[in-house]
Structure formats: structure tokens, C-alpha cells
## 1
Amino acid sequence: MCGCLEEDGEPYSPGMASLLLHYESLLGLPSPWEVSEVRVRHEIEEIEVVVAWKGGPPACPECGVAGPRHDGRSRRWRHLDTMQYRTWLVATVPRVRCAAHGVRQVSVPWAEEKTRFTARFEALVIAWLLEASVAAVARQFGLSWGQAAGIQQRAVRRGLARRELSAPRRMGVDETSFQKRHEYVTVVNDLEGSVLYVADGRGQAALDGFFEELGPAGCARIRQVAMDMARPYIQSVRKHTEAEIVFDKFHVFQHLGEAVDRVRRQENRDLARAGDDRLKNTKYLWQKKTRNLSRRQQVAFAALRRSGLRVARAWAIKQMAATLWGYQVRGWAERRWKEWYGWAIRSRLEPMKRVARMVKGHWDGVINAATSEVTNARAEAINSRIQWIKKMACGFRSRKRFRAAIYFHLGGLDLAPAAAGFHTKP
């Protein structure tokens, strides 16, 4: 170790020598890099750790062949704070003249290329970005919003480059809103893992991109796909795979719940014209589970269910559908669903008949769901997390940043810079 140790330009006490040794030990710099100087500036609460190249001719970062030194460029990187003092690494980085690649700047061991932060500083910021919004992290670390967002973007690119995308045996597909005005992204997830793929839109091309990235061999490994009844997704799965399509019961019940409410609204208008307000303010009685109603609500709801109202009949059809899941034998499932279909299609309730026709049109996928343990619950949980990410960020203006945020929080990626010495993925 060589060099001088200064505080505000003045020779300093032996106590500063221990600080020099501390930084040399903490950074763990490989030869020929050494800590040559530490400058403490109390008036602005900053520390500069000067690192010097103490070796011979530098090597080309492209081919590793040593060559004559061309020149050097002074650079500085934000490092982990020392107590309340903001800390910077300062170094004159040599450039080598390579016969094969021309003039190239030597890579430094404490930071990645094209960044003004050390790897350990970026790793700390990444850890906080996993817990808080970009704006909050930027504020706490004294960064601009763009700098904090840039660290997140680099982390995602790094994680995706390290990841080896493999086809899951069981996967889920769902859409989630990006903004209002029906702006969506398609999210593909491993039903036993994390987010695998995010694409703009909710058309067939969005899902085609995932299968094309997997290739024919990867697509052949997929056995089951859980999804809603979106035709573009169905067409994409059938085009690229031989997988069994499973329509999650959550989506079936979503359609049934909407159908019951349409029946209630129409009947309420008919009754209101005759001066009967029994169905006024009863929307959520027909949507909630009975056990979640108060005692007073249960009494009122029981009287409505026993009435001859059309909505009571629609609700009963929906409740029967709730019992048609979890069959071990496919034949029994088909028999009971055919009974349900016959009741619904003869109910003289157009919204319920519409759902019955939809079930018949997607018969195999519904029966697959009724006889399989596979559900899209994982995708729904991921969708809830995505809504939390949107709320924490107060929305996104850029699709690119929205996709990156989903990968960052839910992709299970190894995000930390390699030079940090540790990784963020368990």
C-alpha cells in the first residue's frame, strides 16, 4: 500500500490510517488495484476513496492480451455510505491499445460498465427497491428518480440474461390492466413458481411470443395450461402445444355472477314499475357467500331465495355449478355438468342461457377443470401483486417500465451485480 492520507488537504492523524486499511479490506480489490488515498470533507459530509492502478501494462477487456497503455480517464462511483457521509470511489482508469480491438478501457472489479455506482451500492438499492417504490428509494438514497429506475432496469436485464427459460409442465396465462382505456399486458406464470413472460396486449401474438421463445422442444414439455376463456389464448396454446387446457372455475363463476346480476337488474326494473322494491339495494346479497352475511342480512336473503323471483332461480343455478368441481371420474363430472346445462338452458333466463352456451362451447376445458387439481389461483395471486406494484408506483406511463417492474418483483430473477459478491435470488 502506498500513497498519502489527507483530511481537507491536511496530513491527518494515525486514526485515518486505520480508515485507509478499513477501505482496503472492505473493498477487497484484486491486484494491481490499491487504495492510495482517503479524503474526508466534513463540510459537505463526503468521503472520497481514491483507487490507483499499481500494475504494469493493462490487458484488453475483450481478449485479455496485455498491451501498451494509451491513456487514463478519471471516473467516480457512488459507494455505500460511511455512517452519514456519502462515499465515492475515485480512480483513473487506464485505457489499453490493443492490436486486435483498438483502444479499450480496462474493466474495473467494483462496478459494471456504463454505471456510476459500485456493485455493492446497486445491490443495496435493489434490496430496497424490492420493498418500496422507486420514488421512495430515490429520496432516501439521495438519487434522482431516473437513477433509481435505471438501477431497476439494469437489474432486470441482468436477471433475464442469467435466467435459462425452461418450459413448465403446468403454466397459467392471465391478462392484467396496464392503464385505463382497456390497456392490457399478458402474463405467463409457472403454476409452481414465478412470472415467466410478460408481453404487451392480450391477443394471440402476445402468447405466441412465449412459445416461440421456448421452441418446439420446450412446448412439447407443457402438459396443462390454466387460463380464462379468451379465444386468442386458446388458439395460441392449440397452435404451439398439445397441452390440456383447463378453464379455471374462478372465471366460470365470474361469468355466472355477472349473469345473476343482469337478471337482478332487469327484474328490479320490472318490479319497480309495479311499486315493488324488494330487490332494491340487494346486489351484494346475491354475490356474497351466505356465511359472510350478517344475521339480519341472512334472514332477509332467505326470504328472497324462497320467493318465486327470477333472480332466485338464477342464483340457484349458480349455486349448483359451485358443487360441480373436484370429481375424480370424468364420466361423473360430464353427467352432472350436462344436468346443470339442461337446467340453465331451459331456465328462460337469457343471461344464464348465455353462460350455459359458453360452457358448452368450451366443454373440454371446463370438464378438465372439474376433474383436475390445476387452477389459475397462482395467476390470480400474481395479478393481485401486480395491482399492488401499480399502486405503490402510482401507476405507469411506460409499458416498458411496467413490464420491468413485474419481472423485478415477481420474476424470481437473480438481480444483483456479479461484482457485488452475492446474489438476490435465494
## 2
Amino acid sequence: MGKWDKRRIWLHAGFILSVLLLLCISRYYYMGYPGEKGAWIDVADYIFLPAFIYLGRWFCIKWFTQNRPVLFLFYIIPCFFLMLIFWFYFVMFAFNLPNIGFLEFSVSHAPLFIIGVITGILIKLVKAYTEKQVQDAKLLAEQKQSELNLLQSQLSPHFLFNTLNNMYGISIAEHTRIPALLLKLSDLLRYSVYETKKTFVPLKEELDYINNYIAFEKMRISDRLVLAEEIEDVNDPRVMIAPMVLIIFIENAFKHAKDTLEQQIHIRISLKISGNFILFTISNSYRKEKEESGILSESSGLGLANTIKRLDLLYGVDYTLKSYIQNNQYNVDLRLKIM
């Protein structure tokens, strides 16, 4: 007999003993010690009651939960009366009551056994409903995890594609800068490949990655970049964040800012902790003649769309994200609950 079978046996035995103990204590509390024959019959009824509870439970499993209520009633009613008849003859002979009538016996004893049957049915229905809810929750969690894994698997290729595309342009005009950029790229890829497999990482690690990325962009853009940073130092490893969330917005800011007609690229990055939330803001210059209609415009790319899906999956209602244009700047405000 397996471990699970033994566990079930102990569980059912504990349930039966609990029911008997509760009924006997209740009877003793309200009616005192069972000194008379009728009182002992009551105790015997309590001992037989679990049989009716399991009758209701078993028929509920067999037919009611299978959406076959007609068969359920067809079988349970005759079985109930057969068990009642059996108990009638047992009580009549065990307690020496030859003059007791079946109708009289049924009127006084059947209500308790009907309650037992109903209790068994309700227990099974509650259990079936709970198991269904748990199963649905597991399926939903598995579905979300599969979708999350797919989205995370697309982060590194997206970043690598954009970076290599930028480096190709540099290699044509300023090939001497390529070795230093490749070293920085190696550090960035190491994080994006290995750390993005985790659901959450310390914010400090994510900020180290962001600082490496900014250093990479400074080397790439050189004198055109006018960067303002207000990034709070976060050394507490308990402050967690989903990996590669912030970097997508920073990457898009650099991508779109360099498309402006102005000689200089203006980018401002702000991150601070306020209470139980991470407040992240980034703004960049933009082209007026190609004004974006929102954070998910056609030019936003796959990475940003996937990031928003990941935010929905991981944070749900615990984040807010908005974008707007103000004073020739494209702004993104992100508010994340610390995980």
C-alpha cells in the first residue's frame, strides 16, 4: 500500500472519529450520560451515521458530479431505505425492541441519517469545487509561465539585434572604436543571457547592467549625447525587480533620440525608491514631424511590446505605465511595486 493510500486511510479515519466524538460530546452536554436504553440507541445511531455520510459522498462522486442527477436519485433513494431497514432490524434485535414499528422508527431516526447523506454530498461538492479551482489556477499559472518564458527568450535576441546593427554603422566610419565596444557588449550579453532566466533579480544587479549599457551608449554616441542621470543607489538585495524591464525603455530612448534632427541627443533618466515602489522616469528628444502616438506605436518594436506583456503577467495591478510628449521630450513614467 502506497504512502498516499495510507494518508487517505488516516484522513478518513480521523474524519469518522471526529464526527463521532463531536456528536457524543454534544449529546452528553445537552442530555447527560446515556443511562437509559433509548439514549444508547442514540449513541448507536451516531456510530452508524458515517455510513450515510459516505453513502451521500459516494453517490455524489459516481453520478451527481458527472451531471447525471436522475441516476443519482434513482440509486441513492433505494439505497437509503435499504440501509434504514437494515438499521431498523439491527436496533430491534440488539436492543430487544420487538414492538417497535418501522414507521415509528423512521420518523425518529431518518432525519439524522438524511442529514448525514446531505453532509456527505456537500463535503464532496465542496471538495470537487475546490479541486477544480486549484486545477484551474495551476493551468493558468502554467500558461502564464510558458508565455513569460517565451517573452523572456526574446529579450536577448532583440537587444543583440539592435546593438549589432548600431555597431555595424560604427565599424564603417570609426572602426577603431569597435574593440572597446565589443568588450562592453560582452559584459552586457553575459547578464542578458544568464540573469533574464530568473523571474526577479535584485534591483542593484539590474542597475549595474543599466550603467554598463549607458557606458556602452556613451562610447557609441560620443559627443552628441547630453545625458542627465538621477539614479538612486540601491544596495539592499531584498529590493527585487523583473530583469530587463527598465533597460527596454532606456534602449528605446537612445534609439529614438538619435533620429532627431538636432545635433545633440538629450536623454534624462531618473530612478528612486519611494515607500514600497520603484519610480522610474525617462525622457528623450524626438522628431516633431514623426511624433509618436503612444508608448506602443508602430516603431516601438518587439522588445517594448513584450516588456509590457511581462509587466502584466508579473505585476498585474501593481504597476502603472504612461507615456506623453511635453516640451519637445518624449516621456515614460513607470511605477513598480517592489517584489
## 3
Amino acid sequence: MEAFRHEERYHREGLKEAMVAYDAALLDYWRHIGRSDGQAWSKNTAEYYEQMTSRPVKLAMTRQGLTPEK
């Protein structure tokens, strides 16, 4: 939850560690259910936002240090 739920304020502290942990848990789940096409949440989310065409959203993400490469 720490990776994607922020109440009233975006919390950057510990975010990378939370994302790594969630990615690992999700990939373990995909393997457990025999799904070979599942990908990490962070990769899937980054790919979604790479396609964003809304300039205000892209600008806000960039200002917060969120880029598809990270």
C-alpha cells in the first residue's frame, strides 16, 4: 500500500523500497498461480504513464521525479 496509496500528500520517503517489495510479492504471486506473462507492478505502471498525453499530468510527474525510467 505504501507504494501507491498516499493520503492528502505524496510521500516519497521509503517509496522505492516499498515498490521493490510490492514488485517482488506480485511476481511471486504470478509464479505461484502459473502465470508466465505477469510483470512487475512498477513496470506495468511506468509503461502506462509513458503513453500519457496529458501535459499537466506529465509535468507534475516530472517535477516529482517520476519518470518511466525510474
